[in-house]
Design a protein that fits this description.
Layout lengths: L3 E6 L9 E6 H20 L9 H22 L10 H16 L1 H5 L2 H25 L4 H22 L13 H17 L4 H21 L7 H13 L8
Antiparallel strand pairs: 1-2
Length: about 240
């Protein structure tokens, strides 16, 4: 098994010589594995008409584990790394199976699920932003790629299951948490901090924001509360939906 994934780096300034940037394979596989477990746990929690069989749960786990990285690589116009090594599909499939088999245990440990979720978002964001910077993207586009990588798995999960996209609704700070962490990484990169400590800071900031949002029920203001009620009163044509 290869120890690292190799990206060719071009420095941000023209005077910077090219160097070899390495992302350890274990770091990428850890993010993929966490995403796979999260997806399987999410899918296995449905009952009634929306319940999934074992294959369906496994597929959602695989989609969530690989989705962020696939979206990242598509945005960067590179061959998805998940298709360049056997270990990605093996890891995410195994992680999805673990999530299925231990779903009952994990669902009783809500704090563990929240922590895993927060760390997974941070890792995908850090790896996405770092790869974008390594390929020579400017700071803002690199941040955008990182956020897309962080939320991509959850977005595809919701699409596959026919659900409203979670990050677009009140009560979810997925994208905000990811953006905060990725912004820290980009800032540290600009001031010359090395990739590893910058990535660790990104993961930590993302995880803290996400955990605090869940613990204290923090969310962005509801759009309807800011505008819909005003329109409804003025026009009397749009019903006000009470929460």
């Amino acid at each position: 098994m290869s120890a690292s994934i190799h990206y060719r780096v071009t420095g941000h300034n023209e005077g910077v010589t090219e160097s070899q940037f390495l992302i350890p394979l274990w770091a990428d596989l850890t993010a993929v594995g966490l995403g796979g477990v999260q997806g399987a746990l999410f899918a296995s929690g449905f009952v009634g008409q929306r319940r999934l069989d074992l294959l369906g749960v496994a597929i959602i786990g695989i989609v969530m584990g690989l989705g962020g990285g696939m979206i990242r690589d598509l945005l960067l116009n590179t061959t998805p790394v998940a298709l360049q090594s056997n270990w990605y599909l093996l890891t995410v499939t195994g992680a999805a199976l673990v999530g299925m088999l231990l779903a009952g245990v994990f669902h009783r440990l809500n704090a563990v699920i929240v922590a895993l979720d927060a760390v997974a978002i941070g890792m995908f964001g850090a790896l996405g932003t770092t790869k974008a910077l390594a390929l020579g993207l400017p700071a803002i586009p690199a941040l955008f790629v990182g956020v897309c990588a962080a939320v991509g798995g959850g977005l595809l999960r919701d699409v596959f299951m026919g659900l409203p996209v979670a990050m677009m609704h009140v009560g979810s700070l997925y994208a905000i948490a990811a953006a905060g962490g990725c912004a820290v990484l980009v800032t540290l990169d600009i001031v010359g901090v090395e990739a590893v400590p910058a990535a660790i800071a990104c993961i930590a900031v993302t995880a803290v924001i996400r955990v605090l949002a869940v613990a204290f029920d923090i969310s962005l203001p509801e759009q309807r509360a800011l505008y819909r009620r005003k329109v409804a009163v003025e026009t009397s044509t749009i019903p006000i939906i009470k929460p």
